[in-house]
Amino acid sequence: MINSSSDTPSRAGRPTARRAPTRRPSAALLVTALVGGLMSAATAPPASAADLAGDFDSTAVGTVPSGWSVTGASGDVTVQDVPGTVDRGLQLRDTSSTSSVTARASFGSTAATVVAGFRLRAAQTSATVGVHLDGTAGHSVTVALGADGQLYTYDGATRVDLGAYTADRWYDIRVVADPSTDTADVYVDGSRRARRLAFRTATASLGALQADVSASSTGTAWLDDVRTGTESGPQGWPYLGQVGPRPALQIGTSQLLVGAETLDRDYTSYPAFSPYLGKLGATGVRLQGGWAKTEKTKGVYDWTWLDKIVDDARAQGLKPWIQLSYGNGIYTGGGDSGLGGQLPSSAEALAAWDAWVRAMVNRYKDRVTEWEVWNEPNLAGIPVADYTDFYVRTATLVRAAEPGAVVFGQEAGIDVTYAQNFLTLLSQQGKSDLLGGVSYHPYNADPDDAWTYQQVAKLRALVDQYAPGAVVRQGENGAPSTAGSFGALGDTDWTELSQSKWLLRRVLNDLGRGISTSVFSISDLNYPGKVNTKGLLRTGTDKSVRYAKPSFYAVQALASVFDSTLAPLPGYHWSAAPATALTVQAFANRTSGRQVVAVWAATGKPTESTTSTATDLTFTGGDFADPVYVDLRTGAIYDVPDAGWSAQNGTYTFRGVPVYDSPVLIADRSTVKF
Fold first, then answer.
1. pLDDT at 336 over 70
2. Residue 299 belongs to a domain with what CATH number?
3. Domain assignment of residue 21, yes or no
4. Does some domain include residue 340?
């Protein structure tokens, strides 16, 4: 743990003095180990940070993208189609062993934390290809593909290897660099590979991104999906680092699931997103069983595709939740095999459905304990009586094969009337004992919408009345990351920023009410001719992952903090000055009692601004020994200075807390993983 101290206040006493975080000494520039050289060519007009958000897809082949300056006397630096892919990237081709090729873009000098993302690919493992964040004195942070086949970075002057890399493969890189501490964290393919690395050259500000192939080697590399942005923390509150990601295997149990839907229709690619799945930290995954994909010839089942998914997800620490849903067109009256599909209706189709369900459950009952019957029957216009009969039919088969199985009923939105009729009919048939849970899909642009949670409370009350002990789960809900996305909420404008805020707010609203909740979805969904951009991972038209969106890292930080060791604190007492519309969700560690309090401005649909308001927060019945401030969206952790808080008789006051429309935490340091 970084900068931890035993000089902490008693649980109800006044805070005592604590050491300020130590600024890491910067190392001298290791001249002989530099990847590439400093730019000597004329600098192009500076580009703003927003201008560095680009994928080069709209740049003409053979040209230099706007805002970039290049040197290429020993080769060339131009936008080119990447062989064997559907990508277009900035190609750096070096044909000389005595000079380098470079590409450089300025985003303006900033003392704020810089978050940079890019994809990097090399055609060989025998050239040194580097990407750098630069201050006024040179390279401050470097990530490189080495001539020795190793991906590496630096801790000051010391090279730090991050593992072997492969030629002709994209690497999704993220760098979080903080000039106030001269330190950086490096992420590769969604995993943090290095933390609190000292800058190669100390700097008070960062201002440019440079890519190059070194002077001593020849080769070809591509750069793509370059994104830079700045994040500012509380003024005068020392930066401590980033929330430490924890994979699902390390977390163990939580209330957080992630959606991996539509694999049954091949709208996403499991091999593409699998490397990110366990790294997210969700401990459950929703899958669709795919009758039509498994049984393409009557009576013949090919489980190969689903075996791989179930086994891999479990190996990564995720508990599969499989939906028994959608029909099969090889049977007359077999029902529809897509969104809004109707139930199987003919005797032959229903007998085939029964056989598939039996075979499915028998095959996976040692690996899967949770099942769900059909997808959004009310949205498809399926009469509730028909759905109830179908649920009873299917759940009876599941329980016969797996007596301990938890079987969920399901609906789109939160249709209390449909749910009540379903539960009533189930009770009249004497089959309420078959119901292990009910899931719902409450899409709303405002993640704090009061009506939504009023309906959830009504649903909870009905389930408690008719099937006491059954789970109520939010089973599918997400927000797009682009305007014009296919699917729910696609009729309004969204960006990667507003998507991140929305997901954090919605998940914390659920967790704060003790609701098991799923994030939809791990990957963008590529429907025929249209894309649903609710994924945490941006994909190409070939369904390959381009990069982890900011929402991936935001949910990853949330998953790291909000595991099963925390319990919600309903009815938590708080006040704020100035008095504004805030949402507060509080939690406590089940063992120590130390607290985590999430706060955000209730703005309706999230805005595209990160401007915060200094707010005084008072928590009655608080429990903090050593508080820190966490911006979940960025993962940044800051120390709350002694002057910034006080405690007396269980009432804690925090002064000047930056609050905006994305969740920030006041958390005891013991509850946050660095």
1. yes
2. 3.20.20.80
3. no
4. yes
pLDDT recorded at residue 571:
95
| Contact present, 143 and 134 (Cβ < 8 Å) | no
Q: How far apart (Å, rounded) are the C-alpha atoms in residues 196 and 595?
A: 26
Q: What is the pLDDT of residues 577-627, one digit of tens each?
A: 998 899 999 999 999 999 999 999 999 999 999 999 999 999 999 999 999
Same domain, 357 and 503: yes
Report the 3 state secondary structure along 264-318.
HHCCCCHHHHHHHHHHHCCCEEEEECCHHHHCCECCECCCHHHHHHHHHHHHCCC
Amino acid at position 400, single letter: A
Residue 391: which domain range?
Answer: 248-562
Number of independent structural domains in the chain:
3
Is 12 a member of any domain?
no
Mean pLDDT for the stretch of residues 69-87: 89
Residue partners of 263: CB distance under 8 A and separation at least 6? 270, 287, 288, 290, 305, 309
Q: Which of 477, 471, 395 is nearest to 434 (CA)?
A: 395
Identify residue 91 by its one-letter amino acid code: Q
Has residue 301 got a pLDDT over 50?
A: yes
* The one-letter amino acid at 202: A
CATH number at 114 reads 2.60.120.560
Does residue 478 fall inside a structural domain? Answer: yes
Select from 452, 510, 471 the least CA-distant residue to 370.
471
Residues 449 and 302 in one domain: yes
Task: Inform me whether the pLDDT recorded for 482 exceeds 70.
Answer: yes
The residues, ordered by sequence, that sit 6+ positions from 293 with a Cβ below 8 Å of its Cβ are: 264, 265, 266, 305
Record the pTM.
Answer: 0.92
Q: Name the region of 489 (left: φ>0; alpha: ψ -120 to 50; beta: rest).
A: left
In terms of domains, do 199 and 282 share one? no
Q: What is the pLDDT of residue 324?
A: 98
Q: Which residues contact 508 (CB under 8 A, 6 or more apart)?
A: 558, 562, 585, 598, 663
Our measurement of the distance from residue 515's CA atom to the centroid of its chain's CA atoms, rounded to an integer in Å, reads: 19
* Contact between residue 279 and residue 247 where contact means Cβ atoms under 8 Å apart: yes
